[in-house]
Amino acid sequence: MRVPSGVRERVAAVHGDCPLSERLRLYDGWADRYEQDVAALEYRAPHLAAASLAFVFPAPPAGARLLDVACGTGLVARELHRRGFCHLHGVDGSEGMLEKARGTGLYRQLWRCELGREPLPAPAEHYDAVTMVGALGEGQVPSMAVPELLRVTKPGGFLCMTTRSNPSNLRYKAELEATLEELERQGAWQKVLAQEVEYWEKATSKEESTQGTGYISGVVYLYQKCPIPPFEE
C-alpha cells in the first residue's frame, strides 16, 4: 500500500532544507498527527532500538536511569517501558512533541533542548543508558552532537542510536559513522552492535526505496562507554 500523500508531504517538510526554527515549528504542527503518520510508514526504529538495548542490558532495568534524546511523542518510551525501563527522562527541541510526551505519563522529567546548539540539561556521567532514535539524519541533529550523548552517560553505560540508509541520508550516515569510529579509536566507547535492518520504514518515493522494495533500510548502533577514561599524553 502506498504512503498517503499527506504523510509524504509532512515527512518531506521536516527533512527539507530550512532553518532549525522553522523545522521545529513544523514538528510542533506535526505533533497531533505524528503517531498516526509513522504508523502508516510502518516505522520500526523505536521497537528495534528498545529491543537491542534490553537485550544487552546487564542488570534488571527497573532501577536504571535512562535519557531519551529527541523523544518526540514518546514512542521509544513506550517500547522501553514494556521491557521494564521505568526511570525515563526525555528531551526534545519541539514543545508540541514534548506536550504529547507529557501526556503519556511515562517520563519522570522532560526538558526542551535544541541538541547541537546547546548542551543536554544533565550533569556528566548521570545516565545508565541514553537513546537517540530517528533524529540523527540529514537536516536533523548534527553528528557533532554525539559526544554530548557520551558526556551524560555513566562509565560502563550504553548508548543506542539509529539512522536511515536511504539515498538522501547516505552522506550524513557516512559522516556519522566516521564520528562513531573516531570516538571508538580514542577509547571513549566500544561498539556492541551495528545492525543494518532492511525493512526500516516505508519509502516516501521510488528514489528512496531500497531495490524496489517500497521500503528504506536503517541501522541500530549500540555502544558501551568505556569505564576507564582514555589516556591523554
Automatic annotation (TrEMBL):
What CDD domains does UniProt report for this protein, alphabetically?
A: AdoMet_MTases (cd02440)
Picking any one GO molecular function of the record gives: S-adenosylmethionine-dependent methyltransferase activity
Q: Which Pfam families match?
A: Methyltransf_11 (PF08241)
Q: Which residues form the Methyltransferase type domain?
A: 67-160
The lineage's top-level taxon is Eukaryota
UniProt xrefs under PANTHER family: METHYLTRANSFERASE, METHYLTRANSFERASE-LIKE PROTEIN 27
Q: What is this protein called?
A: MET27 protein
Which species is the source of this protein? Rhinopomastus cyanomelas (Common scimitarbill)
